[in-house]
Structure formats: structure tokens, C-alpha cells
Amino acid sequence: MSPITGNASRRLKEELSKLSHGYKPVLCYLIKDNEEVSIDCMEVPKLINKVFSEGIEIKVCNEGKGVCVNLTKDDDIVAMPVEGREVYFIVSEGDEVSKDQRIGYIITGKGEVRTIRSPKDGVIFLLHEELGEKYSRFKVFIKGGGK
Predict the structure, then answer these.
(1) pLDDT tens across 93-110, in order?
(2) What is the DSSP string of 32-51?
(3) Are residues 65 and 92 in contact, defined by beta-carbon separation less than 8 angstroms?
(4) Planar angle of CA 26, 107, 98, nearest 5 degrees
(5) pLDDT given for residue 1 in this prediction
(6) Domains in the chain, start-ordered, CATH in brackets?
(7) How far is CA 29 from CA 16, 21, 22, 115, in A?
């Protein structure tokens, strides 16, 4: 099979390049004593209390959007549990949200569709999936204010 060349190939590569930005990972960092260390984002929920008790900082970076959000001891954060047979978010880390803004959907065990709304103005800090459950379970961490 010969490779595709010409304008169609160039346009396809451009489109795939645009799409690939959305598939970059979310990276998390622990900042203590001005030293930044990469951590597994699954560990972030366990470390949030240490932000307020020990003065560490956590940074979550959405590589696809080129946005990072820092959490410090002076910040206000809400952890909103979300559970359903299927959970779909229309926001991602780093997105600014308004109170009552639609941020996703839940499909219940009965097949009903429910809307997930932000409980406050702020920025999505982390969408954390709790693994190993029969249904989809998430905690949505929203930092009050801006980035």
C-alpha cells in the first residue's frame, strides 16, 4: 500500500494534530519548599488535607489545554461526589465554571439522564475517578475563584 500524499494528506495531518491536543494527559505535582515533584493524580485527593495542615501546594496541569491550577492553603475547595451507572463530563481540569453551570451528565441505573451542575463559581481543579466500583464514582474538586 502506498502512502497518501497531496492536499488530502496534509489536511488530514492538520486535523489529527488539532485533535491530538485533547488527548494529552493531566499531570499533577506536589510543591514543597519550592521543589516541584511529579505525583500520580490518583494521590491528589489523599493529599488535599495536607495542603491546609502542612502548607504544601498541589498543581494540576491539563496538558491538552495548556492550563495549570495551583491549590494553596489560602484557597477554598469543594469536593462534590458524583455517582451513576455512567458519568459524562463536559468540562475538564482548568475550565472555569459558574454556580449552577452544567458540567456533566449522569445516566442512572434506570436509564434516566440527570444533569450535574457546579455548586459554586470557580475552576475545575480535578476530576477524580474512584476505581473498583460497580457504578462510576467521581469526586469533582472545584477551587473557588480563578486559576
Answers:
(1) 999 999 999 999 998 888
(2) ETTEEEEE-GGGHHHHHHHH
(3) yes
(4) 55
(5) 42
(6) 25-144 (2.40.50.100)
(7) 29, 20, 20, 31
Q: Tell which residue, 116, 127, 125, has the closest CA to residue 96.
A: 125
Phi first, then psi, for residue 82 (nearest 5°) are -135, 130
Under a CB-based contact definition with an 8 Å cutoff, are residues 142 and 122 in contact?
yes
Q: Give the integer Cα–Cα distance in Å for 74 and 111.
A: 41
Residues of the chain with pLDDT under 50: 1-2, 4
Is there a contact between 48 and 76 (Cβ–Cβ < 8 Å)? Answer: no
The cell for 96 is 472555569
Whether this prediction's pTM lies above 0.85 is answered by no
CA dihedral sign of residues 34, 62, 27, 46: positive
451528565: which residue's cell? Answer: 105
Per-residue model confidence as pLDDT tens digits over 23-42: 678 999 999 888 999 999 99
Buried b / exposed e along 15-36 (16+ C-beta atoms within 10 A): eeeeeeeeeeebbbbbbeeeee
Positive/negative CA dihedral, 108, 113, 114, 118: positive
